[in-house]
Amino acid sequence: MSEKPFFIGYAAVPTALRFVMGLVSALLIGGAAVLGYAIGHAQDDPGDGAFRFDYGRQTVTGVIELTPLPVMHVIEGSEQIAAGDTLMLSGAGKNGALPRAAALDGQMAQASGVLLQRGEIDMLQLRGGRNGLQAAAGDGTTPAPVDLGHWKLAGEICDGKCLAGAMRPGRGISHRACANLCIQGGIPPVFVSTQPVEGEEFLMITGPGFSPLPEAIYDAVALYISAEGQLSRHGDLLVWALEPDTIEVLP
Amino acid sequence: MTGAEIIVEAARIWLWIGAGVAVLFLGFGMAMVDEDADGAFAFRPLLVPGILLIWPLVLWRWGRLAMGSDDWAWRYGPPRAIHMAMAVGLSLAILAFLLGGALVKQSWPADSAPQQLSAPEVSE
User: Fold this and answer.
1) Domain check: are B31 and B65 in the same one?
2) Mutation test of the interface with chain B: which of A151, A198, A232, choosing the one with the most B Cβ atoms within 10 A?
């Protein structure tokens, strides 16, 4: 019979193998810990956006504007939403609010749902059906958009809902497929600028001439890009009419 | 037809063929090539999802067993022979993917300042 030690898991470790096994085990465990820390440390900060369920259901009244995706200029606010705010609207999941809001363009409406908030950006996820959005009595007019000129910006195209807190992380390459599905579903797309523009870091985006977002933009979602477009202020929300043929993917 | 539609259509066709193979194999073929399965039916629905996905392998194995050309010992030889190469290769691949991902990762262009290319249009 051979004298060569043969390791079996349920017996005591042969003396000759103890050092090697201890060293290999320590290297594996330590290496896994270091690798895990390094990968985690390399990830971007997911930000502080979140569904504000702690605020409870928010019900506000205001004027609907199609940009072409719907926003509400709040006239009668709630405890957490001030009058004068401009709210982006979405449905549940990856559904936009356009089907319900299309008939209310320029009219007073009551919106009810859960607020999503991240810094200066906020969005209301509407309740289902007419409970979420319905025509309301009262007087109100859509604030006239203020033209801010033609701008070249650098940053990232995201979907407004995940960015505002529906997902963490709600931006970046790992979130690209989700962002594209949200945008295709009608969730308002948002551009995160590298530096504030007219005091704002987040801009809602549309296609050229404030048309619906063209499909050509889908390929640029979640990448760091620069692009040009016409900028305007709608209420307290900046809207950037991005021109797809000016998009450059940055290194 | 877009790329996504082609992928979905290809997957649909693949799964429908798999469904046909599942009906034939579980209905008739299995008892022909495995005498232990003859008369046993309760477990067969559990195999449907797998057959939907790997039906070409099922057809190939079914054919070899039916023709009596299967060599069971041969089947285990190649996997054993490449265990070490695969272990080293996959370990290196994981490292390569991590490093490659880090290399092609974009940098947030924090220094890129917004530029106003033209002033707002003044309405008369």
Assistant:
1) yes
2) A151
Q: In A, which residues are within 8 Å of B118 by CB distance?
A: 149-150
A101 and A179, same domain (yes or no):
no
Residue linked to tokens 């947030």: B108
- Kindly report, residue by residue over A196-248, the tens digit of the pLDDT: 999 999 999 999 988 999 988 999 999 999 999 999 999 999 999 999 999 99
Examine residue A37 and state whether it is found in any structural domain, yes or no. no
Candidates A197, A228, A250; nearest CB to B109 = A250
pTM across the whole model: 0.74
As a whole number, the mean pLDDT across chain B is 90
- CA–CA separation, A73 and A64 (whole Å): 6
Please check whether residue A153 touches B, CB under 8 A. Answer: yes
Is residue B3 assigned to a domain?
yes
Give the number of domains in chain B. 2
Domain of residue B82, residue span:
72-103
Angle at A41 between CA A38 and CA A42, to 5 degrees: 85
Q: Quick one: which of A122, A219, A130 has its CA closest to A180?
A: A219
Q: Report the chain B residue with the minimal C-alpha distance to residue A225.
A: B109
Looking at the fold, whether B76 and B60 belong to one and the same domain comes out as no
The yes/no answer to whether this complex scores an ipTM above 0.85 is: no
Instruction: Report whether pLDDT(A39) > 60.
Output: yes
Nearest to A213 by CA among A169, A159, A143, A139: A159
Whether the CB of A148 is below 8 Å from some CB of chain B: the reply is yes
User: Do B63 and B78 belong together in one domain?
Assistant: no
Q: Where in the sequence is the domain holding A209, given as residue range(s)?
A: 146-249
